[in-house]
Amino acid sequence: MGEKKNVYSEEVKRNVIEMKLSGEYTNRQIMEKFGIRNKSQIMTWMRWFRKGEEHRLGQPIGKQYSFGKGPEELSEVDQLKRKIDYLEIKNEILKKYQEIERSWNQK
């Protein structure tokens, strides 16, 4: 059976980020203090923080940000910038896939 997912409060997530930024604590120490099972969870919160997506820290489980459904306070320019970033990444992935597909066909 699947494991029950841990739900962490926004306060815990912010504390983890502060501890990481201080440089005084290892991932293992932070994980033990807050009962976090995997360091990838810490890395995800740090990525959101670095990208300025702190609003995601307060979203409930299963309701995470998806493209085009961010906070309403974003200006139209910011929304368009996000859309451009999304499409550029998508384009890069498609180019890489085409390169891989070509290498398969050459064999």
From TrEMBL:
SUPFAM superfamilies: Homeodomain-like. Pfam families: HTH_28. InterPro entries: Homeodomain-like_sf (IPR009057), InsJ-like_HTH (IPR055247). It comes from the Bacteria. Residues 13-54 form the Insertion element IS150 protein InsJ-like helix-turn-helix domain. This is Transposase and inactivated derivatives. It comes from Gracilibacillus orientalis.
